[in-house]
Amino acid sequence: MKFGEMFSKYLHDEDEAFLHNCSHVEYKKLKKVLRGCRVCRAVKVDEDFDADLDPDPDHQRTGGLIKKREAIGKENESDSLLSAEAIAEKDRQELSEFWSCDQCALCDEKFFSELAREASEVAGCFSSRVRRLLHLHVAPGGIQRYMWKLRHCFTDDQQVMVQEGRLLLDYVTMNAIAIRKILKKYDKVHRSVTGRNFKTEMHAKRIELLQSPWLIELGAFYVNFTGSDIGEPGEFFRKFSCDLSGAQPVMSMTFSDSIKYEYSLTCAVCLDTVFNPYALSCGHLFCKSCACSSASVLIFQGLKTASKKAKCPVCRSVGVYCDAVCMQELDLLLKNRCKDYWRERLREERAEMLKQAKEYWEYERSAFLGF
């Protein structure tokens, strides 16, 4: 079954009620845009054929690619002293220049603007639904938890949470695959790398679905469960794993047969396993104390008080602290798996926070009294 049919079936399957209020990628609509563009290009080739009487207009283009690749290969032989990364980057740049086509008014007007809008809506819908789900899980009680049970007729609320989490995973996975497929098709139609470059832009705009911090939180949510606790088959829970014993702690998540991601749980500042983790809006994970130090704010003040000009220590993106996500599920996972380490880090953070608070108020008192 082709992906287009599979995606259409998913949107109108038994989960249609769940997807009713959720945005999704208009895969068929975007394919129609590319199909129209392909027709225009076919007409242009026919016109060039009639004008130049060229029996095989694609032959020159194909031969040009072969010659270009041969030239690149010879040049790489002469550049044997360069590193493998430098040679690969040079090849990509030269092939990108060769394959790049003229601007396509039809696609530039409709395709990328529409895809960016849809991806942004899907990312926003996914993050809001996961935030609400995990808040109900972490919250010990209250009116929201009671209303949740009432809406589901007081069935096992953990069972319902796990089921909704599975629906959210399917939702983000199917839309991520749809975006990947349609961008690949764009590059195939236009013989360009513009689609691949757009995927990089999506990451910069923080709408890359499989790099969302809420996806890591959802994975930690499942790792915190066991199949026997809620009667779920163990096969599903084996898709989520967390290895904290090695030098590089990682969380692994398998979304499909072809998509498997590993998320590093090492803080890039202290180079240790993250404690009280926060994910900046650029997607990088840090300990709260390390993130506050990088943003030049005190721990008790929090990341919300960080300047909009403060940069991420890894990617140097600005304005990434104000919308930082507190990773409560991941912190709960670390608390349960690394109890001694978690207690030690808690003592250190509290001691540092008290020290900073004391110094801060001493400075404020001196400034107010003038001595």
UniProtKB/TrEMBL annotation:
Ranges of residues in domain SPX: 1-200
Catalytic activity: S-ubiquitinyl-[E2 ubiquitin-conjugating enzyme]-L-cysteine + [acceptor protein]-L-lysine = [E2 ubiquitin-conjugating enzyme]-L-cysteine + N(6)-ubiquitinyl-[acceptor protein]-L-lysine
Residues in RING-type domain copies: 267-316
Pathway connected to this protein: Protein modification; protein ubiquitination
Single Gene Ontology MF annotation: zinc ion binding
EC number annotated for this UniProt entry: 2.3.2.27
Pfam family, one: zf-RING_UBOX
Keyword terms: Metal-binding, Transferase, Ubl conjugation pathway, Zinc, Zinc-finger
GO biological process: protein ubiquitination
InterPro entries: BAH1 (IPR033326), SPX_dom (IPR004331), Znf-RING_euk (IPR027370), Znf_RING (IPR001841), Znf_RING/FYVE/PHD (IPR013083), Znf_RING_CS (IPR017907)
Protein name: RING-type E3 ubiquitin transferase
